[in-house]
Amino acid sequence: MNEQMTPLEEIRHSSSHVLATAVLRLFPEAQLDIGPPTATGFYYDFDLDHKFTAEDLQNIEAEMKKIIKENQRFQRKEVSREEAVQIIKDFGQETYKLGRLDDVPEGDTISFYQNGDFIDLCAGSHVNYTKKIKAFKLLSIAGAYHRGDENNKQLQRIYGTAFATKDELEQYLTQLEEARKRDHRRIGKDMGLFHIDEAVGQGLILWKPKGAVIREQLQSFITGELNKQDYKQVFTPHIGKLDLYRTSGHFPYYQDSQYPPVIDRDCLAEFVSEGCTCSDLSNKMDDGEIDGYLLKPMNCPMHIKIFDSEPHSYRDLPVRLAEFGTVYRWEQSGELNGMTRVRGFTQDDAHLFCTEDQLQDEIKGCLDLVKTVLGTLGMEDYKVRVSLRDPNSDKYVGDAENWEKAENALRNAAKGLGVPFAEVEGEAAFYGPKIDFIVNDVIGREWQLGTVQVDYNLPVRFDLNYTGADNKPHRPVMVHRAPFGSMERFCGLLIEHFGGDFPTWLAPEQLRILPISEKVYEYSDKLYADLKAAGIRVTLDNASEKLGAKIRRAELDKVPNTIIVGAKEAEEGNVSVRSRFDGDRGTMKFEDFKTEFLELIASRKLQLKK
Fold it and tell me: Which one has a higher pLDDT value, 287 or 495?
């Protein structure tokens, strides 16, 4: 733990120790693992046969309040490694704490913090006394594998949050409650947008018809923008040879986050007959002795091969290749979360191949595209992060000169955006720096969306060339970009951002017709056929129910627009118009309404529920 903490981090870190103190008072047999502060609060991991309940959470919180009221002092103790082992054993916490002690490098200071009878291996820092903790709340219970490894035992994690003042805590709890209401998993189920089925596999999304409409509309929207910028659409397989990803560096750099390779049956049988173990096979794959196939973790190597499939002159550049390409990552099961953290997802991916002279303009074009996407969807509250390499890390490939050129190109582009940006070392991709857009949604949460990356290295690894004006071979520069990022994650975010109240152009069902009685069914049928022929996603509610019930059902289904049809409307060729965004809009001539409605859809106007 870093000793240089902010005052808020100290409050949260101290709260995690008070949480552990309270749990041991109520459950003395519990074994403790770790309890750090987080960006939004704190947690502590426990090994305990008893499964924590909501009632336990209330009792633990009450015990924490007692401990805080006792105003226990946090005291730091620096000890030798031998003394540390003895302290841990005397406190009866050797199951996990001795392993954590082994993580402390030889020669580093070993410290404990004690409050009352509780003592914990900890680098600090903490508040001076427990009464400094003024506002905290325990939030939830979750499972968490020891050290984040699903091969280890699953522990019980208690999450909490803490703030400097009660007002700040209340504001955060209000935001959490709003987030629960907007949870895309609940709304997605209620609206029939997507499904995750254990028989298919965790983290694999089944898009239902209504959810597919949203995806199709987003794809159609961005395809139109790509056509304006002269992108060319391509399609690539879901699987590729392992050597392709050895060359790119994705294997073995990201091997732990990929699905296991598929090995040729005859090759596998031969090695098994020779007595090779799974470990032997893994080592042979790492060493390149065994080839196989890999579910593609990235689209870029295949786009590179498309570019390299024919010769290019400087006159051909830039070449812009785009694909809605599905990729696969082996995320830990504990990290999966509805649509926002999945194992199979489709990227609105593109790779641009250009000369160095063209690079700045190509970056600007990519950034303009991201700004167009965010502006259309009402996500203009964002900041920009320029992610750079850490020069002291061996994670990054390529020479320093090319990295410097790539980073300077992104810096210059970021300055032209007209919004504040921050530079962060160590967050670059292994092949190049990137610009990330960090967007605030309507309830103030941050999401990373839209990325633009400059890459001098993969063209070297794949030996890409174009013929320059001097009739000699030259190396192109690559730009990677994805305005949405992942269609799954982006749609999950949109569900929460809009709370399911999608603007009309994006809504799965744009309009519902509500006839008041059977007497106007013929007129309603005529309107339905006319609107459907115009390309509007419309439905007709002919249920034998009162109008109030039909209106309530449309509200629950989050249909953005309804038209009500009675005898008078049928007689005069009118409709009574109602919107979730604007309320009752009165009676209109049907043809006027249809014209206005089609214009609303075409404009992709942003609509937010009042």
Answer: 495
Closest CA to 402 of 361, 433, 428: 433
User: What is the widest separation between alpha-carbon atoms in the chain?
Assistant: 93
| Nearest C-alpha neighbor of 15 from the set 35, 33, 30, 1 | 35
pTM of the model: 0.85
Rounded Cα distance between 42 and 9, Å, is 9
Active-site position among 126, 303, 351, 489: 351
**Mind listing the pLDDT tens digit for each residue in 102-148?**
999 999 999 999 999 999 999 989 999 999 999 999 999 999 999 98
Query: 93, 347, 358, 510: which one is catalytic?
Result: 347
Tell me whether residue 171 is one of the annotated catalytic residues.
no
Alpha-carbon torsion, ordered 107, 112, 113, 116, to 10 deg: -160
Q: How many CB atoms lie within 10 A of CB 125?
A: 19
Tell me the helices (H) and strands (E) count for the chain, helix number first: 20, 27
DSSP assignment letter at 464: -
User: Is position 497 annotated as part of the catalytic site?
Assistant: no
Instruction: Fill in the amino acid letter for 564.
Output: I
Give the 3-state DSSP-derived string for 154-193, with helices as H, strands as E and coil as C. Answer: EEEEEEEEEECCHHHHHHHHHHHHHHHHCCHHHHHHHHCC
347 noted as active-site residue: yes
Q: What are the DSSP calls for 409-435, one per residue?
A: HHHHHHHTT-S-EEEEET-SBTTB-EE
Q: Tell me if residue 550 is catalytic.
A: no
Active site residue 349: yes
Given CA atoms 213, 219, 224, 225 in this order, what sign does their dihedral have? Answer: positive
Q: Please answer whether residues 410 and 367 qualify as being in contact, where contact means their C-beta atoms are separated by less than 8 angstroms.
A: no
Active site residue 474: no
Tokens standing for residue 176: 């959490």
What pLDDT, on a 0 to 100 scale, did the predictor assign at position 1?
42
**345: how many CB neighbours lie within 10 A of its CB?**
22
Domains of the chain plus CATH, in order, are 7-181 (3.30.980.10), 206-231+296-496 (3.30.930.10), 239-294 (no CATH), 511-603 (3.40.50.800)
Based on its alpha-carbon atoms, the radius of gyration of the chain, rounded to whole angstroms, reads 29
What tens digit of pLDDT does each residue of 522-578 get? 999 999 999 999 999 999 999 999 999 999 999 999 999 999 999 999 999 999 999
